[in-house]
Amino acid sequence: MSLSIRNVTAADHPSVLALNLESEALMSPLDAMRLARLDRQSVYHRVVCDGQDIVAFLLAFREGADYDSPNYLWFCERYPTFLYVDRIAVAESHRGRKLGGLLYDDLFAFARDRGFNQIACEFYIVPFNEASSRFHARYGFAEVGTQWAVDGAKQVSLQVAPVPAAAPA
């Protein structure tokens, strides 16, 4: 497995859309027009490649983006600065290979290098996404609120984690 992380290009959008569709039960739907708009607004949008194949992606925004997500807006109302993980997806064929951790490690380094002191995200607690809960706990995320989403069909845990200072060399 020859893995690399790089920024998304417009040519990657079909692969990103396919990964999003594969994980749509755990995040909101996405079409080509919305992806292009979100990509322009994002501060971090990277993919993991296994050779030439895109097998994971992570899309994040900073405060002040022109983004209508109720969860993003919740953080905007409460935190003056943050880096918000909007979505992360890993191909079914590559789950269990720590690609989510690879992206989060990269995201935390990105945040640290750019002076962000916290990262925000959310995951479903109704229905309960146990894997996401465990994953985020390992990165120091803690619940700062909850809200109902998808017209009251699902509930999210709104989470924040501090960005630790770089380890001394």
How would you explain this protein's 3D organization?
The protein has helices at 13-22, 32-41, 70-78, 99-113, 130-138, and strands spanning 3-7, 44-50, 53-62, 83-90, 118-126, 142-149, 154-162. The chain is globular. The chain is built from five helices and seven strands; from the N terminus they run E-H-H-E-E-H-E-H-E-H-E-E.
Which terms summarize this structure?
single chain; 169 residues; alpha+beta; Aminopeptidase; 5 helices
CATH classification, class level: Alpha Beta
Q: Work out the count of structural domains.
A: 1
Strand content: 25-35%
Summed over residues and divided by their number, the pLDDT gives a mean of 94
Question: What is the helix tally?
Answer: 5
CATH superfamily: Gcn5-related N-acetyltransferase (GNAT)
Q: What's the order of the H and E elements?
A: EHHEEHEHEHEE
- Please describe the biggest sheet, giving its number of strands, its sense, and whether it closes into a barrel: 7 strands, mixed
Low-confidence stretches: none
Structural class by helix and strand composition: alpha+beta
> Helix share of residues?
25-40%
CATH topology: Aminopeptidase
**Physical arrangement of strands within the biggest beta sheet:** 1-2-3-4-5-7-6
First-residue to last-residue Cα separation: 29 Å
Outline:
By secondary structure, this protein is an alpha+beta fold. Helix content is 31%, strand content 33%.
Layout of SSEs?
Blueprint: E1 3-7, H1 13-22, H2 32-41, E2 44-50, E3 53-62, H3 70-78, E4 83-90, H4 99-113, E5 118-126, H5 130-138, E6 142-149, E7 154-162
Parallel strand pairs: 4-5
Antiparallel strand pairs: 1-2, 2-3, 3-4, 5-7, 6-7
